[in-house]
């Protein structure tokens, strides 16, 4: 009930979704950089494969020479040659 | 992002290597404890390198131990480590500090005065006047009141049309425009006389307005009135006019020289010695190489001001002294040689003086031989128009 009301207020004020909720925001710059906001943690990390867990599911990134640049509390930047990425939805 | 980098550099950071099978767990724990990590790179299956802040290192070691990882430091970067490196070299740091402070302090003074004259016209003694007005080498820049100095200098002198002072770094650039001394132009409407400005004998007269005061063949000297600026009529009485006319006169230019038969002449041998010295304000240090080995020599001193940037002069200058050797050559002229030499020298001097070479009418050379010298007189006779306007003052 309370959550619903908050959502309504936020909708009226046009606050971005990723700010008031746990929804991850993924932005890709070129093919070499990927910024993921609102992430939970790293599940797997190899130079060719990164698995990042979020509140909505898991993001898998495939590529070469993947680095984790600037890890902060709520966003992570992955750089390197990104080949492909996919999501694993959590079904509830 | 650059600010973040600078802050990281100031606080210092470590690049560490973590080795183990539970690296993801290690990263997640670090993240949960909100430790700052960046530039994480996987080297191989079980090894990563990453940057961390210094203050978190101990905690990170503990986490690594918990997750069965090995930690090694790859590089220490940042200002605190640099400081540590120079901790034992106290004198070096002290001198660095002293140099920085002295440069900082000395930048508040004027260490060089550069005078730029428009069109390269030299103005005599301007440096002394500027110094007297308050702009000296070594004065505080804050004490230099450019407006006041300009006013003072311009009051003292009347040959400056414009003056500007610009303080750039430790360099004071004084720009000057020389005022040309113009001949007094007399207005067409005003009454004037024509006055001779040279000594000579008048050969031609052409009076258009006014009354002639002299005749052809008269000898006039400088300052004599040639044409009076008035006219007398039978009925009108004396009427003042603007005198007009052209007067040509024979003018003589004479030069005299005594040439001795036996002279010593300087002759450069081309050998040179250079010495260097340092001058700090008025205190001079020379680095001599002992007494000069030449018997006769000329000394030429060159002062080079030390500067860091184009306009940041320091109160230090390097003095380069050059000794040029010369030989004294005894020369004896015969009477003819001396005569020719003297005539030639005088002629070139005279020809520089006379503007209109075509108007030279006559050349006159007189020589008087003495016991061991010869006197030479050369006279040039030139036809020139003489006369300038002079206002009539009632």
How is this structure best described in words?
The complex is a heterodimer of chains A (92) and B (394). With 92 residues, chain A is α+β, with helices and mostly antiparallel strands. Chain A has helices at 2-13, 17-20; strands spanning 25-29, 33-37, 39-45, 49-54, 57-71, 75-89. In chain A, strands 1-2-6-5-4-3 form a six-stranded antiparallel beta sheet, with no helix packed on it. The mean pLDDT of chain A is 87. A five-stranded antiparallel beta sheet of chain B has the order 11-9-15-21-20, covered by helices on one side. Chain B has a four-stranded antiparallel beta sheet with strand order 2-3-1-4. Chain B is α+β, with helices and mostly antiparallel strands and 394 residues long. Chain B has helices spanning 2-11, 23-32, 57-66, 79-85, 90-106, 126-133, 146-156, 335-353; strands spanning 13-19, 37-44, 47-53, 70-77, 112-117, 160-168, 171-178, 192-195, 200-209, 211-212, 219-220, 225-228, 230-233, 237-240, 244-260, 262-280, 283-287, 297-307, 313-332, 360-369, 373-386, 388-391. The mean pLDDT of chain B is 83. In chain B, 23% of the residues lie in helices and 46% in strands. Chains A and B meet through strand 3 and strand 5 of A and helix 2 and strand 2 of B.
Computed CA radius of gyration of chain B, to the nearest angstrom: 42 Å
Care to count the β-strands of chain A? Answer: 6
Count structural domains of chain A. Answer: 1
Could you name the CATH class of chain A?
Answer: Mainly Beta
Helix content of chain B: 10-25%
Q: Write down the Rg of chain A.
A: 15 Å
Structure, briefly:
The complex is a heterodimer of chains A (92) and B (394). Helix content of chain A is 17%, strand content 58%. With 92 residues, chain A is of the alpha+beta class.
SSE topology sketch:
The complex is a heterodimer of chains A (92) and B (394).
Chain A lengths: L1 H12 L3 H4 L4 E5 L3 E5 L1 E7 L3 E6 L2 E15 L3 E15 L3
Antiparallel strand pairs in A: 1-2, 2-6, 3-4, 4-5, 5-6
Chain B lengths: L1 H10 L1 E7 L3 H10 L4 E8 L2 E7 L3 H10 L3 E8 L1 H7 L4 H17 L5 E6 L8 H8 L12 H11 L3 E9 L2 E8 L13 E4 L4 E10 L1 E2 L6 E2 L4 E4 L1 E4 L3 E4 L3 E17 L1 E19 L2 E5 L9 E11 L5 E20 L2 H19 L6 E10 L3 E14 L1 E4 L3
């Amino acid at each position: 009930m309370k959550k619903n009301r908050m959502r309504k207020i936020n909708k009226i004020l046009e606050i971005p979704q990723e700010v008031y909720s746990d929804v991850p925001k993924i932005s890709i710059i070129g093919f070499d950089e990927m910024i993921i906001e609102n992430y939970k943690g790293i599940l797997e990390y190899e130079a060719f494969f990164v698995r990042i867990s979020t509140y909505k599911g898991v993001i898998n990134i495939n590529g070469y020479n993947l680095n984790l640049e600037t890890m902060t509390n709520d966003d992570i930047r992955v750089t390197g040659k990104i080949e492909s990425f996919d999501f694993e939805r959590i079904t509830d | 992002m650059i600010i973040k980098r600078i802050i990281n550099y100031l606080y210092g950071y470590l690049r560490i290597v973590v080795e183990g099978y539970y690296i993801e767990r290690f990263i997640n724990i670090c993240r949960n404890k909100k430790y700052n990590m960046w530039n994480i790179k996987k080297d191989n299956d079980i090894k990563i390198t990453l940057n961390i802040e210094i203050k978190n290192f101990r905690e990170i070691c503990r986490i690594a131990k918990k997750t069965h990882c090995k930690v090694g430091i790859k590089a220490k970067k940042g200002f605190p480590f640099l400081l540590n490196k120079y901790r034992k070299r106290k004198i070096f740091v002290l001198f660095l500090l002293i140099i920085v402070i002295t440069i900082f302090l000395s930048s508040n003074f004027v260490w060089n005065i550069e005078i730029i004259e428009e069109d390269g016209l030299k103005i005599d003694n301007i440096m002394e006047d500027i110094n007297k007005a308050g702009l000296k080498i070594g004065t505080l820049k804050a004490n230099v009141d450019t407006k006041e100095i300009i006013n003072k200098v311009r009051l003292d002198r009347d040959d400056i049309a414009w003056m500007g002072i610009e303080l750039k770094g430790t360099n004071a650039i004084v720009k000057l425009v020389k005022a040309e001394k113009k001949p007094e132009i007399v207005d067409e409407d005003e009454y004037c006389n024509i006055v001779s400005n040279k000594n000579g004998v008048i050969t031609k007269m052409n009076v258009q307005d006014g009354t002639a005061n002299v005749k052809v063949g008269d000898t006039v000297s400088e300052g004599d009135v040639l044409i009076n600026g008035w006219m007398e009529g039978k009925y009108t009485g004396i009427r003042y006019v603007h005198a007009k006319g052209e007067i040509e006169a024979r003018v003589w230019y004479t030069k005299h020289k005594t040439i001795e038969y036996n002279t010593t002449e300087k002759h450069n041998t081309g050998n040179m010695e250079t010495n260097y010295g340092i001058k700090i304000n008025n205190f001079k240090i020379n680095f001599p190489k002992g007494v000069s080995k030449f018997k006769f020599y000329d000394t030429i001193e060159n002062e080079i001001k030390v500067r860091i940037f184009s306009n940041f002069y320091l109160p230090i200058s390097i003095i380069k002294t050059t000794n040029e050797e010369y030989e004294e050559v005894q020369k004896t002229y015969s009477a003819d040689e001396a005569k020719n030499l003297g005539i030639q020298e005088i002629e070139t001097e005279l020809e520089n003086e006379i503007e209109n070479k075509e108007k030279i009418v006559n050349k006159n050379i007189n020589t008087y031989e003495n016991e061991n010298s010869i006197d030479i007189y050369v006279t040039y006779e030139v036809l020139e128009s003489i006369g300038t306007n002079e206002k009539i003052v009632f």
